[in-house]
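Go through this chain for my students:
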Amino acid sequence: MSSNKTKIPFYNDLNFMIDSCEGLILDIWGVLWDGITVYPEVLKTLLEIRKKNIPIILLSNAPRKSEIVVKKLANIGIKPNLYDKIISSGDVCKSELLTNTNLVPGVKYYFIGLKEDNDLLDSTKFEESLSPKNSDFILITGPRDFNDNLELYTTELKECLNNKLPMICANPDKIVVRQTGKKIFCAGAIAEVYQNLGGDVIQFGKPYKNVFSKALKHLKLLSPNINLKNVSVIGDGLETDILGGNSIGINTILITSGILSHSLNINYGEKPNLNDLNEAIHSSKHLPTAAVNIFKLSH
């Protein structure tokens, strides 16, 4: 790495910042769990943070209602008493579709995503259409199956483009990584393909400012005298968590055992090669305040 580039401080735990911390905005996938199981240190760490009376907002690019995320997390041990609020990109997407009448040209949507996520617009004015030809817009929450590859969607996306459908993307994430190292592509990756084909795409969630503003607003309700200099976003996505946190001027802490573990060639919890880490960070142009390998406190 060039010597004139800023070296991002790397720590083995969160002890370096926790004593001055007044509020946390936490990513979920890649920080607290891998989509299937909770990471080893997470429950103990959340309990320790709660003992310090630090408010916690979970800010997720989950393309579903936050109450569903609450249930999923509770099933793996992350109970509601361990945080103050969840804000999901699904919630934000639904709210914008309902309140912004100019967002889409009609009420019929063509759905791309897991079957279990096709309830986002239930009990609203919107209705699903089974073909692009009879639709007004695309609603995408992700792939239909986590084992799919992007090429499976090309023909379908071209048909949507031929029908001039705008795409509403409820999850800007492009990939996530399991603890095993397996990569799974997300709605953001399909949205990028559609955009490259010439399609119009509107995305909701991180890194867009409105979701971070909602999180900050709730932190201020919980702690009216909060000093934003002592608020941190903790996430594993340079293009989502770090970019978004930087855009609203708060501290950003990068977890290296999530998305970056694949490119850094590390297993969960391993310390990365710091030159490789700094190269990856500077290549993204989204510099965090600091980096930590996993979400934990040491004693």
In short: The radius of gyration is 19 Å. The longest strand covers residues 56-60. Residues 164 and 252 are 38 Å apart (CA to CA).
